[in-house]
């Protein structure tokens, strides 16, 4: 017997951020549930409840859901309508494909002021003579019955036929109840025999025709469960070997992680230099339940598990697992994992750039005693964008010219005039010896066009 549990409800609250107490819409369809319970305590604000495709034989524990507007109980094992008289806000009730025989049980819905739509298609009671006329008269607030609009002219017409419809409905209902009691007895005997010879006549039971009753639906469900259990217990050794061969290896013999994509998901691993982190985007399915996705970040690898299948990627640099974040997009359903790096950024940001060395002039960079480069004491005013472009396009060079000095470096060594020897010491000026002037030759002609000798 499958029962409604808190974990089952919590797995279906992804659209409400996992909060159960404020949940307004809940879908528990096709879960093989056999009883409605706990919902009025866990989800008192429910407005929409889907319970179709289960094995529920009775409507119960729903009357305290005062805000409930839509209840879907199609494809269950209901035989009568009950337990809804206190659902004051109920507007739409779907009871399609059940086993409702007691049509007079619909009178319990007369106290629902907001009930406007009722679906009873596929129930035995819909074959009663005068069924539609009787329902419209008993529930005067209905606007739509079995998908067909109730018009004003039809309402006036069925009021005149109500007495006849009530009589025929009563007769047909008694006949259907007698038939149902016989079917119940036959089903109980068949279930006892089938339980004893279940393994031997399993194929024969599925091939034989069976009656359409709630007991048959329950028996089919139990047989499917037993068949599934037998297949799991009778697994051959070859299948176990195949399963072991299919196991994914995540690490090498020496413990190094490996790149694995057993889930066969599309992903993108990028490096964000501004935030100094790795960003992994995994294209998970849009409507995938969040409980089926797990993410584990380690210093040298990241592992994402989707429905038991692993996607593992090795990082190029060590990351900080404690600061990693994982989020899913509400639009696409993709999983985005951000993993900050352990090492500092290789390129500093614009706020931490080193101070720019400003070009200096000769007067401020060179002193009279030495030719050393000097940083200016105070920064120059901020340059305009046009000046920066000119400086970046043209290279700046320091201008170097010949320095004027009183020292004559061509006469570092002094010569003694009397002895003609060379003496080392302090640099001094050259002293030329006095040479007597030679007499002018009598044949000398002074030509003014010839420049004088220096």
TrEMBL record:
Residue ranges with Basic and acidic residues bias: 380-391
Gene3D superfamilies in UniProt: Ribonuclease Inhibitor
GO cellular component entries: cilium; cytoplasm
Region (Disordered): 182-215, 361-454
Biased composition (Polar residues): 407-427
Extent of Acidic residues compositional bias: 188-202
Residue ranges constituting the Dynein axonemal assembly factor 11-like CS domain according to the UniProt record: 219-341
Main location: other
GO biological process: outer dynein arm assembly
Location in the cell: Cell projection, Cilium; Cytoplasm
InterPro entries, A to Z: CS_DNAAF11_C (IPR056496), Leu-rich_rpt (IPR001611), LRR_dom_sf (IPR032675)
Keywords (A to Z) from UniProt: Cell projection, Cilium, Cytoplasm, Leucine-rich repeat, Repeat
Pfam families documented for this protein: CS_DNAAF11_C, LRR_9
PANTHER family in the record: CILIA- AND FLAGELLA-ASSOCIATED PROTEIN 410-RELATED (PTHR18849:SF0), LEUCINE RICH REPEAT PROTEIN (PTHR18849)
Similarity comment: family membership: Belongs to the tilB family.
Protein name: Dynein axonemal assembly factor 11-like CS domain-containing protein
Organism of provenance: Scylla olivacea (Orange mud crab)
């Amino acid at each position: 017997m499958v029962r409604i549990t808190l974990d089952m409800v919590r797995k279906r609250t992804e659209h409400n951020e996992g909060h159960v107490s404020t949940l307004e819409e809940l879908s528990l369809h096709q879960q093989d549930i056999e009883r409605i319970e706990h919902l009025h305590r866990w989800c008192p604000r429910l407005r929409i409840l889907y319970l179709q495709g289960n094995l529920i034989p009775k409507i119960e524990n729903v009357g305290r859901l005062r805000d409930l507007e839509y209840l879907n109980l199609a494809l269950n094992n209901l035989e009568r309508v009950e337990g809804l008289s206190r659902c004051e806000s109920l507007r739409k009730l779907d009871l399609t494909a059940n086993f409702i025989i007691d049509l007079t049980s619909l009178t319990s819905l007369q106290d629902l002021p907001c009930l406007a739509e009722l679906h009873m298609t596929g129930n035995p009671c819909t074959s009663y003579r005068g069924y539609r006329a009787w329902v419209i008269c008993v529930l005067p607030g209905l606007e739509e019955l079995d998908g067909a609009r109730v018009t004003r002219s039809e309402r006036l017409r069925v009021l005149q036929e109500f007495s006849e419809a009530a009589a025929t409905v009563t007769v047909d209902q008694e006949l259907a109840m007698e038939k149902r009691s016989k079917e119940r007895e036959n089903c109980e005997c068949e279930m006892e025999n089938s339980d004893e010879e279940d393994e031997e006549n399993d194929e024969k039971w599925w091939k034989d025709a069976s009656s359409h009753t709630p007991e048959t639906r329950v028996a089919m469900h139990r047989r499917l469960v037993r068949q599934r259990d037998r297949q799991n217990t009778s697994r051959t050794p070859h299948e176990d070997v195949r399963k072991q061969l299919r196991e994914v290896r995540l690490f090498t013999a020496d413990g190094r992680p490996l790149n694995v994509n057993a889930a066969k998901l599309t992903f993108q691993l990028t490096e964000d230099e501004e935030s100094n982190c790795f960003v992994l985007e995994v294209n998970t399915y849009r409507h995938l339940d969040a409980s089926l996705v797990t993410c584990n970040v380690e210093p040298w690898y990241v592992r994402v598990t989707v429905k038991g299948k692993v996607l593992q990627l090795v990082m190029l640099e060590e990351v900080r697992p404690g600061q990693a974040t994982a989020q899913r997009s509400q639009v696409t359903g993709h999983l985005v994992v951000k993993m900050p790096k352990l090492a500092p950024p290789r390129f500093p940001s614009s706020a931490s750039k080193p101070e720019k060395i400003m070009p200096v002039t000769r007067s401020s960079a060179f002193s009279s005693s030495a030719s050393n480069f000097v940083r200016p004491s105070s920064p120059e005013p901020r340059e305009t964008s046009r000046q920066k472009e000119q400086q970046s396009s043209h290279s700046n060079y320091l201008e170097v010219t010949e320095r004027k000095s009183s020292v004559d470096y061509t006469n570092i060594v002094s010569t003694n005039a009397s002895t003609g020897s060379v003496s080392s010491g302090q640099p001094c000026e050259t002293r030329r010896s006095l040479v007597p002037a030679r007499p002018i030759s009598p044949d000398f002609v002074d030509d003014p066009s010839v420049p004088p000798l220096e």
